[in-house]
Amino acid sequence: MGSEIKDKLGSVALWLYDHKVNIKVIEIELFRDGENTFLQPQVIIPLPVSRFTETGRNLQPTSALWMADGKAWHLDKRCSPKTRELLLKLDELIKEKLEVDGPHWGQKYYVSYKIGNYLWLRVNTRASVLQLNFVVKSKTFAEQDLAQRLGFAQYSNVQSQAEKMNLGNSVFVEESDESRDYIRLRIKDKFDMQSKPFLEFLEQAYKAFPK
């Protein structure tokens, strides 16, 4: 059970299920409505058709809409009109300014961009916020400095869920290993994607990709 089941884990779980192991994989998404917080679970395995099955099996739109038409899934189902506008503007800026492979629309919870064959940016789509997850060289960005440059709050894992959800635009820098960090930006609907600080960060994050 988790907020996002990686393809590799899903494939292993599906193999176990196919070999009569009683296993269930559940993805959970968090939603907020006013002061109320809701958890929405979705069983990924077992399903009549799984996104982890090998290429060649028929897709059922009711169980894998993101695989049948990923772009429509993210823009029309996952995003609100405001986050849709943000995502389209981000995509336009990336295509205009950077040489990357993408967007890739075929995942349920995110849209991705690659440099070479490696993931550089994952954009988690939601109705209230876009979460941008960049892979960069270790120690390239300091969280406090980046927050000041962008005018963002600093996001902390020790904050309560209510505090996290009440934050405006926020930034979090997480060390992955000795060679790379993850930069996580949570962007809400009033953010100016064309602001000079953000455009500068976008280009710097591109150049800082750990090749």
How would you characterize the overall build of this protein?
With 211 residues, the chain is α+β, with helices and mostly antiparallel strands. It has 2 domains: 1-53, no CATH class; 72-207, Aspartate Aminotransferase, domain 1. The chain has 7 helices and 9 strands, in the order αββαααββββαβαββα. The strands form 2 sheets. A 7-stranded mixed sheet has the order 3-4-5-6-9-8-7. A hairpin with a 2-residue loop joins strand 1 and strand 2 (36-45).
Highest CATH level, the class of the largest domain: Alpha Beta
What series of H and E elements makes up the topology? HEEHHHEEEEHEHEEH
Q: Work out the oligomeric state of the chains in this entry.
A: single chain
Largest sheet: 7 strands, mixed
Helix fraction, binned, reads 25-40%
* CATH fold naming of the largest domain: Aspartate Aminotransferase, domain 1
Strand content: 25-35%
Gap from first CA to last CA: 32 Å
**Count of folded domains:** 2
Under the CATH scheme, which architecture of the largest domain would be assigned? Alpha-Beta Complex
Mean pLDDT equals: 81
> What is the molecular shape?
globular
Runs with pLDDT <50, length 5+? 48-63
Global structural class: alpha+beta
